[in-house]
Structures are given as structure tokens and as C-alpha cells.
């Protein structure tokens, strides 16, 4: 199972890319608890954990791999997404987990993805380089919250195939 995590609270292109993956890969789960996570505090990273943290860590533990899609905000990761990543460290569920990400930004979002690479390195994940891709999604490539452009859908499917080969 592939866990799909958007680094954005908005229902825009990042969510559309992951909803598209979910359509293409029946064995995938969209994580929708980003907004529910409490602010990370190392003092709170102990039992009993907040239910939203338990849900996140359980979803990661159940996954064979994790695919992220995040925008850049003010030159780095959005705060809510960095908060999610902070909660992944203490539990260890993401350690050695294969991960990849799709960058859908029209401008590149290099700062966010450099930060993501750094954090995932500290978490001890296995970054699957072939499953890290820049696939810009212009507004006209999406409809009803999904990617409709056949070429872009094929590129997204290729990333997923490289993350979790058949």
C-alpha cells in the first residue's frame, strides 16, 4: 500500500496529483489528517499521543511506501507540512521506508523540496531517486480535482511505478 500525503491544506494541484495517483493505484490511501495534527512539541511526543498523531504514525507503519506532494511557501516547506514531518521522527515508523515526491509547481519549488530531502534524510527514509519528479500542473491540465491531461497522468503513473515496482 502507498500512503499519499499532501503538504498543502488547499484543494489545489497538490491534492489533484495525489487524487490522480489514488485513481491510478487502487492500493493507495490518501492521508487527510494534516489539519488535525497538534503543533509539534517534543515534550508531547510521549504516551498518550494525540489521536491525530496516532493516526499519522499508524498510516505510515501500514504503508509499503510514502509519496508526498507539497508546494513551496515563502521559499520552504509550508509550516503545517513541516509540523507533520516533525511528528514522523519520534515514532520511527518512517525509518527505512521508501519515499518519493512529485513537485507540481509551475515555478519549481526547489526550496521546499531541498528542505523535504533534508528532513527525510534525518528521518532515515529511503529516498527513491527515480520517484522524485517535477511534473508541473497548469490549471488547464486538471478538472474536478484530478489531473485529466493523459501525458501528465502517464508521468505521474511512472513515478508511482518507480516508487513501488511491480
Describe the structure concisely for a colleague.
The chain is of the alpha/beta class and 166 residues long. The chain contains five helices and seven strands; from the N terminus they run E-H-E-H-E-H-E-H-E-E-E-H. It has one domain (2-163): Flavodoxin domain (Rossmann fold, 3-Layer(aba) Sandwich), CATH 3.40.50.
Set down the secondary structure blueprint.
Elements (H helix, E strand, L loop, with lengths): L1 E5 L6 H12 L3 E4 L19 H12 L2 E5 L9 H13 L6 E6 L6 H13 L3 E9 L7 E2 L2 E2 L2 H14 L3
Parallel strand pairs: 1-2, 1-3, 3-4, 4-5
Antiparallel strand pairs: 6-7
How much strand content do the residues show?
15-25%
Number of domains: 1
The N- and C-terminal alpha carbons lie at a distance of: 12 Å
- Which structural category do the helix and sheet elements fall into? alpha/beta
Provide the CATH top-level class.
Alpha Beta
- Helical coverage, percent range: 25-40%
What is the ordering of alpha helices and beta strands? EHEHEHEHEEEH
Q: Looking across the biggest beta sheet, what order are the strands in?
A: 2-1-3-4-5
Number of DSSP strand runs: 7
User: Which residues sit in consecutive blocks of at least 5 with pLDDT less than 50?
Assistant: none
Amino acid at each position: 500500500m502507498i500512503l499519499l500525503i499532501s503538504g498543502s491544506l488547499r484543494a489545489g494541484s497538490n491534492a489533484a496529483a495525489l487524487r490522480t495517483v489514488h485513481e491510478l493505484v487502487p492500493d493507495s490511501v490518501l492521508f487527510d489528517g494534516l489539519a488535525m495534527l497538534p503543533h509539534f512539541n517534543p515534550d508531547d511526543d510521549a504516551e498518550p499521543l494525540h489521536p491525530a498523531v496516532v493516526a499519522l504514525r499508524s498510516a505510515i507503519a501500514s504503508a509499503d511506501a510514502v509519496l508526498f506532494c507539497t508546494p513551496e511557501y515563502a521559499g520552504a516547506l509550508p509550516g503545517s507540512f513541516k509540523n507533520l514531518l516533525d511528528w514522523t521522527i519520534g515514532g520511527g515508523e518512517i525509518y527505512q521506508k521508501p519515499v518519493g515526491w512529485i513537485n507540481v509547481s509551475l515555478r519549481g519549488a526547489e526550496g521546499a523540496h531541498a528542505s523535504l530531502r533534508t528532513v527525510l534524510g534525518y528521518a532515515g527514509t529511503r529516498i527513491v531517486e527515480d520517484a522524485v519528479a517535477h511534473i508541473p500542473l497548469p490549471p488547464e491540465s486538471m478538472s474536478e480535482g484530478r489531473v485529466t491531461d493523459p501525458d501528465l497522468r502517464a508521468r505521474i503513473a511512472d513515478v508511482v511505478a518507480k516508487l513501488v515496482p511491480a
